[in-house]
Design brief:
The structure is a homodimer of 142-residue chains.
Chain A: E1 3-12, H1 15-25, E2 28-35, E3 40-46, E4 55-60, E5 74-81, H2 84-93, E6 107-111, E7 117-122
Parallel strand pairs in A: 1-4, 5-7
Antiparallel strand pairs in A: 2-3, 3-4, 6-7
């Protein structure tokens, strides 16, 4: 038997807010399935040249009360970026809290609008520690 | 900026049970990091020839009380297999409940020991519907 990874799926309460969040990270919609009978939408998003590893957003049109506001059960989605400082600036400028700023030039954590934890890692060697990240405290957990 | 998917991380209560579960699916340990000071282990597991898309298991040596027993917040991990019937038989023989049997020869859902939902999809065309799956009812949700 052979096995191949396809995607990670997460449920979202507000599709627009969540898609805007992942677009800030650099993901684009690659595929969409609207199910009128089941009243849900499935949206696949991936980074350019990384379409084989999408995140799948499940949006139930009539809401999804079973969604907890926070979950430590699911860990996180991780993405590698070639410039963690530029990415964190983009996120911060858009009002996203940098829960774990990249103090070390290497790793940061943020949360999606549904509090899904997202890890960001600098590709290759860490960048030199720099402000405003060095002085920025942690916020919450991730 | 460029972005690349790295892994999905999930927290586990019992590392042996969870690794045994993912080994049943066909994943192998590809990388491990033991942190004595932080008292946690990180184990990366991936299918052969699919090492670029691992699942990361986080195991806290002193337990992790924040783990809910079930979570609809996180969706699922999805894996494609070349024989969904053989894989479901392997899982069933090992005592894993097939929450959503592959009635349609195409899709099944199971749960990890921490109730992490795992989707299994037949690669390519669905197989012809077959017993025991046709007659097998659903169990719980996924």
């Amino acid at each position: 038997m052979s096995l191949k990874y396809l995607h990670t799926m997460i449920r979202v309460k507000n599709l627009d807010k969540t898609m805007a969040f992942f677009e800030l990270l650099g993901l684009k919609e690659t595929r969409r399935h609207e199910n009128e009978k089941g009243r849900f939408s499935l949206i696949f998003m991936a980074a350019p040249r990384d379409e084989d590893c999408p995140v799948e957003l499940t949006y139930n049109w009539d809401g999804d009360d079973a969604l907890p506001s926070d979950s430590r059960h699911f860990g996180h989605l991780a993405y590698e970026t070639n410039d963690i400082y530029a990415l964190c600036h983009t996120l911060m400028d858009a009002g996203v809290v940098i829960n774990r700023p990249p103090h070390d030039g290497r790793m940061a954590f943020v949360r999606s609008p549904d509090n899904i934890s997202v890890e960001l890692l600098q590709a290759g060697e860490p960048q030199a520690p720099a402000e405003p990240w060095i002085s920025m405290g942690n916020t919450g957990h991730w």
